[in-house]
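Retry 2 of 3 after timeout on previous attempt. Resubmitting structure tokens to design endpoint.
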């Protein structure tokens, strides 16, 4: 049933049947007792008030947790979506980091030296904006599909290796630790991330994330750019999945039973609203997130500086998946 749903939403047609896709924006001003289509599947989630204390200040680029719109799905325990808690400048910052910085060596990328230059493999974004040839640029743009951070997942063996371990970005670590503390995951440690790049028309087939030694810790998934249809199923491919839109700035959390469920992205489509553009209601500088690149944060507000990033994100989606690899009492992978 999962594969059938995947094919249904992946179909190449100008008028796909998307009536069963859950649109969280429909629920913003709806009474949750009204019984609208698919409404029974969605439940508003309340951020635990005990976690929002004056000592836990809001990081730069995020809205206050008091303004977050959080939702759970009744038939998928442990799945939670925060509907775009970022400011426009906050979104721009993470888009720029994902394009300019995260694909650089020593991080791993899917590009290989057999098909691409050494410069492209080590600094994809820099190479993309130096060629000046439209055909070359388009090939480089669409070829980039992922980069890994921290513990680098081996796609052949499906395991993590201590020998393939680089420093996890401190700004991304601080961001996800903030989310985890507000949501009540007191001991979450960001140790690995996969940044996926989805030009419109690309997909990610059904799979589970089970390579981590710690499967009890939540998985944080951040979406930026164009809109995706996200499928979340059960523990087997025989179970009927639920489809929902993930839009720019959305944070999806998979924990408890949903952590090991099949999930996929059958479709990436044009967004109706560029939420990364607009005036930001900025928060005060926060010691909790001093790891952010303050120069880059200021630069992305400048439209000339932002233009290349806008050119990429206008027809692509970025997804940052952050997870904890090790049990909390273990400091490294033992062979």
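Retry 2 succeeded. Sequence:
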């Amino acid at each position: 049933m999962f594969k059938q749903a995947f094919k249904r939403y992946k179909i190449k047609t100008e008028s796909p049947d998307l009536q069963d896709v859950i649109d969280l924006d429909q629920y913003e001003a709806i009474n949750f007792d009204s019984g609208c289509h698919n409404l029974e599947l969605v439940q508003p989630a309340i951020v635990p008030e005990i976690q929002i204390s004056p000592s836990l200040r809001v990081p730069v680029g995020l809205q206050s947790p008091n303004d977050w719109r959080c939702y759970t799905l009744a038939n998928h325990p442990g799945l939670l979506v925060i509907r775009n808690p970022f400011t426009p400048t906050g979104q721009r910052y993470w888009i720029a980091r994902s394009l300019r910085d995260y694909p650089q060596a020593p991080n791993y990328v899917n590009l290989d030296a057999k098909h691409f230059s050494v410069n492209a493999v080590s600094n994809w974004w820099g190479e993309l904006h130096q060629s000046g040839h439209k055909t070359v640029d388009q090939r480089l743009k669409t070829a980039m599909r992922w980069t890994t951070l921290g513990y680098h997942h081996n796609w052949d063996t499906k395991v993590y290796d201590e020998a393939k371990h680089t420093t996890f970005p401190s700004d991304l670590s601080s961001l996800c630790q903030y989310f985890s503390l507000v949501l009540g995951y007191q001991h979450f440690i960001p140790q690995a991330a996969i940044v996926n790049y989805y030009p419109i028309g690309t997909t990610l087939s059904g799979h589970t994330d089970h390579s981590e030694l710690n499967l009890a810790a939540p998985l944080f998934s951040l979406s930026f750019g164009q809109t995706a249809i996200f499928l979340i199923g059960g523990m087997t491919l025989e179970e009927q999945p639920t489809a929902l839109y993930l839009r720019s700035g959305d944070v999806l959390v998979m924990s408890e039973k949903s952590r090991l469920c099949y999930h996929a992205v059958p479709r990436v489509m044009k967004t109706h609203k560029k939420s990364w553009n607009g005036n930001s209601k900025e928060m005060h500088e926060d010691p909790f997130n001093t790891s952010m690149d303050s120069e880059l944060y200021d630069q992305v507000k400048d439209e000339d500086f932002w233009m290349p990033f806008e050119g990429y994100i206008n027809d692509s989606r970025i997804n940052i998946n952050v997870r904890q690899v090790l049990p909390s009492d273990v400091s490294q992978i033992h062979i």
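Attempt log closed. The mean pLDDT is 85.
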